Amino acid sequence: MPLDELHSLRDWVRWSASTFEAHGLFFGHGTDNALDEALELVLATLHLDHSLPESFLDARVTRAEAAELARRLRRRVEDRVPLAHITGRAFFAGLVFEVNEHVLVPRSPIAELIEARFEPWLDAEHVRSVLDLCTGSGCIGIACAHAFPEALVDLADISPEALEVAQRNTERHGVADRVRVVQSDVYAGLDGKRYDLIVSNPPYVSEAEMATLPPEYHREPRLGLAAGEDGMKVVARILAEAPEHLNEGGILVCEVGASADLLMARYPDVPFLWLDFERGGDGVFLLTAGQLAEFHDVFVEG
Predict the structure, then answer these.
(1) What pLDDT score was predicted for residue 231?
(2) Pick from 155, 147, 210: which is nearest to 180 by CA?
(3) Quick one: how far is CA 92 from the chain centroid?
(4) Cross-strand partners of 253
(5) Strand 246-255 with 284-288, pairing
(6) Which of 17, 52, 189, 257 could disulfide-link 38, Cβ–Cβ 3.0 to 4.6 Å?
(7) Partners of 8 in the beta sheet?
(8) Per-residue DSSP letters for 60-111?
(9) DSSP state, residue 296
(10) Whole-structure pTM over 0.90, yes or no?
(11) Domains of the chain listed by start with CATH number
(12) Which residues pair with 254 in a beta bridge?
């Protein structure tokens, strides 16, 4: 690695991007190209953010900084670790979150819905309770806490390690006084509590799809991705039990990604509303409390 030939931030960005391309890395954990990935590697390692004036890219890197950049770059290239797990940070809905190997890297298009406060499907001024189901890092629920400042938010996950990350993120963002972290297998640990909004990015990857994922995804916790033979194991439970946890007029928003066709094939009569996103992404549906109650028997029989 030509450390002595790389002097500035700009040098490191250019050379890292070329190295990523040469090794055929996969980009899908916060960036979608080698150049943006390289820039985030350099800025995060040097404790800088993306508001850095471009002229600062010509600043020189110290020997200690260069050694750390080289170490992190090797982990990204040789071990195929997602960059966010190396840097310890990820961006979601305009906020920065701590992440590590115990949580998925935030990347859900649901961020757009949160920024729009789920309008027109909810009256934001009357949202008082939110559940982020299968929360992982807590990014969805914490972003909802910012969008709905009068709401109490529960972050639920089955993984104790993920909940430790989520708890630190609630403290990082100053919302720990109204955001509760709960260990729960889907709804089991919530003591029958009801919510105005349930949002979930649950595990939904089928066994067949798991086998085709790039190496970077296999560095994330399998618990957050895989969900049985057809990927519907957790989603089916979310649907079947949702009526018991939604207030009248409430909504469920759930991401199922590439498993959308499997979901519709399993429940062909259910009027899933598939949402569109300006910044890209798909596979997110919305159902109202009334619709979930109407099709409750269908979901239970599943």
Answers:
(1) 83
(2) 155
(3) 8
(4) 199, 286
(5) antiparallel
(6) 17
(7) 60
(8) BPPHHHHHHHHHHHHHHHHS---HHHHHSEEEETTEEEE--TTSPPP--THH
(9) H
(10) yes
(11) 3-87 (1.10.8), 107-301 (3.40.50.150)
(12) 200, 285
